[in-house]
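Model the whole thing, not chain by chain.
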Amino acid sequence: MNWRRKGQLGAIIAVVLFTASCAKKTPTLNLLVWEGYADPSYVKAFEDAHHCKVSASYMGSSDELMAKLRGGSAGNYDVISPSSDVATSVANAALAAPLDLAKFPAYKQLSAQLTALPLVRVNGQVFGVPFMWGPDPLIYDTAAFSNPPDSWNVLWDPKYKGKISVWDDLSTVYMAAQVLGFDKPDPAQLYNLTDEQLDAVKKKLLELKPNIRKMWSTGGELTNLFQNHEVIAAMGWPLMTNQLRKINFPVGETIPKENTTGWIDHLMITAASDNKELAAEFLEYMIEAKTQKQVTDVTGYTPANPQAAQFMTPDQVRNLHLDDVDAYQKHIYFWQNVPRRAKYNEIWNEVKAAQ
Amino acid sequence: MFSRAYKLAVTVPPLAWVALFLLTPYLLMFCYSFWSISPAQTIVHSWNVQNYRELVTVSVYWQTLLRSMWIAARVTLFSLLLGYPLAYFLSFYGGSRKDLLYQLVIIPLWVSYLVRAYAWKTILGSDGVLNTLLQYVHLAKHPLEFLLYSPFAVVLTLTHIYTPFTFLPIYASLEHIPRNLVEASHDLGATPAQTFWKVIFPLSIPGVLAGATFAFVLSLGDFLAPLLLGGPSGIMISNVVVSLFGAAYNWPLGAAISFCMLVLVVALLFVSERLEKKWSFS
Amino acid sequence: MSSITTSATASALDSPRDPASLLSIRSIAKSFGSHTVLRNISLEIGQAEFLTVLGESGSGKTTLLRIVAGFENATSGEVWMHGQRLDRQPPYKRRVNTVFQNYALFPHLTVEENVAYGLRVAKHPADEIRTRVHEALAKVKMTAHAKKKPAKISGGQQQRVALARALVNRPQLLLLDEPLSALDANLRRQMQVELKSLQREVGIAFVFVTHDQEEAMVMSDRIALLRSGELEQVASPREIYSRPATAYAAQFIGHTNLLKALVRGGIAQCGSLSWPVDLPDGSAFFSLRPESLRVIIAGSPSPGSLPLQGRVVHQAFHGATQLARVECSGGFELTLRTARELNDGIIALEFSPPDAIPVRESPERL
C-alpha cells in the first residue's frame, strides 16, 4: 500500500468518524412498542422539546418482544411496552431498569387500580409505569350482521366458513379457554390451564380452523382484512376499530357475554439503555394527561391516567368507559404471566400446522 | 508471480469472513440444537438429543416439513414449466428483441419480494381484480375464496417469484448450445420435435437441474409467502422455525429443525451438482 | 466423373437440363437486409461429382452451401434435385447431408450414437442401424473409438466421425463446409487424400467449400470460383489454371503475372514488349504463368518466343522450384519459376506469346 492509498484510507476513516460523531450529537431514543404508541401526533412535540429523535420499531406479539430482549437485542432499544402477560417476566429477568418514582410526577395521577397490581413490582422496586389498557374485543362488519353478535361462539358458526380471523397469538388460546368456560370460577385459570384443559382448547381451536380465513399478526393486517371484505368478524384490538371508523368502514365492537381478556401495557426502560435519562423524560411525557388523551385518539385504548378525561368529549369518555371503569373492568381479565408458556406455544403451533 | 504475502492478503479476508459470519453461526446453531429449554424459559446448556427426538416423535414438525417439501416440489415443477418454454423461446426465437425480452424477464427480480406478494393479494383477494372480473363475466357467483389465503396462493406466488431463478440457468444453458448442433440434427433428418428431445433438452439438463435446485431450495425455506398469503393451515417449516426462535423462545428446537433443513439442502445441492457434472460436456 | 457443361452466366430457365445432373441451382440470390451476399448463382452438379466452391471469406460460399442444406432461404431463385424443388423443403426432409466446419458432433452422445443419429430418427430397425453404423465407422477407421464421447477424441478423429455420421445415411449429396480448416497442415493433406478416395468409393456427389485454392486444385473435379457473391468461373482445376476466364481467377488460382496491354491492329503492346493477338482494339489483360517464362542461359532466344531483360530483385525457395521476382526494363515486375537459384544481376528471359492468356478484367464489386 503506497502513501497515497494510505492517505485515502485515512481520509475515509476520518469522514466516517466525523459523521459518526455528528450523529451522536442528536440523541436517538429507540422504542420497541405496540403499534400506535409512537404516533407523530404526540412524539413530534417530545422530539422538538428535547432535541432528540424517536425511532420506533413495532412488536407483533408479546413473544416477539421477549424473543428480541432475550435474544440479545435488548441493547438496541431504550423503551419497551410489555403487556401484562410478560411484564413480570421482563422485570424478573432484569431486562428492565428499576424506576425512581420521584422522577415521575404524573405517576400519582395514574389509576390506583393499575399501579396497585403486583405485575411490575419486584423486591419492592417498580420496573414500569402502566400506560394504556384495553380489552381484546370482538370486532365485526356491521353490514354482515343484522343482529349484533354478543358471543364468541359466532366465530364458530358454520355460516361464516372462511370469514373470520383470529390473532396469531396465545390470546386466541385464552379466548377459546374462555369460551369453554375454564375462566370459571377463577379467571386466573386461563393463564395456568391443565394439560386436559389445553387439549380441550386445542380441539376447540381445530374446530374453528375451517372458519378462519387468515390469522392476523399486525394491526394493519386485520384492518386490511376487514377493508377488503376478506373477513366479517375477528378478535382484535380497539386500535383496529378506531382505524376502521376513521375510514368510515361499518365496524362494530363488543365485549361478548363470555367476557374477554385484556391487557395493561407498561412502559419500561431497558436495563441496557444508554439513554436512561432521556427515556425517563419520555415515560413521564407519555403518562401526562394531555399525551394520554392523544394516544387514545390514535389507538382507541383506555388511558392509564384518568385525568386525560378532562381533555375529552363526553362521548369519548363514555365510549372508553372512563365514567364507569370498575363495572367495565369486571368483563376484562387482564393478561397475566403464563408459567407454562412453552406448552401453550406448542399447542398453538400444533393448531396452526394442522390441516 | 504473486508473492506469498500478496496471496495471503487476498485469501485470508474472504476466508475469515466466511468463517466468522457463516461457519460460526452454523456451529452455534449446531450446539444450540443439542441444548434444551427450562420451564422458566432459559436455555440449559446440557447436551442431549431430545430436540431431534422431538422432531421425529411430534408429528407437527415432520408433517410440516413434508408439506413444505410438497409445496416446494410443486413450485419447482411449475417454475420449470413456465421458465423452460420462456427460456427456450427467448434463446431460439428472441431475434433482435432478445436483450429487451431478457431484461423484461429479469426486471421482476429487482422488485421487492413484499411488493410482489402484496400485488398478488390485490389480485386474488375476495374484492380483488380476478374475483371482480370472474363475477363481472358471470363465471362465478361469489368470490372464489380458494384463490387467496390458501396453499394455491402460496404455490402461485412462490412460482411467480422463483420462475426467474429457473429461467436464468436454463436460458444460460440453452444459449450455450452451439446452434450448428441444431442444424446438424435437422440435417440428419430429425424433425424439430426430435431435435428438441434428442439434442436441445439433454444439453440443457444442467440448466434445468440448477434452476430446479434454486426453486426448490429457495421455496422450501420461504416463510413470507405462507405468512402473507397462506391460509390458516398453510404454514411451512420456516414459519415453525420463526415461531420457535421468536414467540416460543425455544431456540434449541428451532436450531434442530434448522440444522435438519441445512443437511437436507446441502445433500440436495450435492446431488444436483453431481448430476449437473454428469450432464455437462465441453 | 461425368463431364457436365456448366454455364455460369446463362439464365436458369433456358439452361439445358442435363440428365446426369443431380443438383441444379438456378438464379439463386440472397440478401441479409440491404447486404447482398449472393447474386444470380446458377450451377449444375453431376452425380458423383466432386465440386469445390472456392472463394475468399465473405464471398458467399458458405451461404450458398447453407441454402442447399436448407439452413437459409434464398431471397430468390430455385434449387432442384432429381427434378424436385429442394428449396421448399425443410432441411430434415432433404436427402442431403452436411459435414460442418467444426464438425458439430453431439457432445452428449458417443461416437457410435452420433453416427447412428440419422438412422435412429428415421426409425430404422435396430440391427440395421448396428450394421450400418459399424460399416460407417470401419470406413473411417474409427471402430476403436465407438464408445467414446466426442470430447475425448482428436480433431482429425472428430472429422472422421462427422463424415461417417453424414455418410451412414447414404445421401445423394454431401455438403462439406470447410471441413479441414481446423486441422493442422500435415493432417489436412492426409485428410484431403482420404476424403477424395472416400468420395470415389461411395460414389456420391460432394460439394466442398473452401478458401484454400491448393485444396481445391488437389481434390476437385470442378471448381466453382465465387467472388463477392458471383461466380467468376466454373471449370476443372486444370482448365481454370491454364485458361483462367478472368484476371481474378488467374490470380486466385496459382501464381501469375498479370500484364495490362494495349491492343491495336492485332498487336498487343505492353511496355517494350509486343506480340500478335486475335483481339479487338482496346486495353486487355493477359495472364502469364511464372513457369511460362524461361531464362535464356546462353545464345539467342528460341524461335517465335519473345525476349526480354530484367534484374533479379527477390528470390524465394519453394522446394523443387524457386520463385524469382524480376524487374524488367519496361518498368514492370514479373515472377518466374526456375529449377535453380539464379545469380543476382541482369538476366535474359523469354516466353511464347500463346502462353499469355487473355483474361477478362474483373469488375470491382461491393
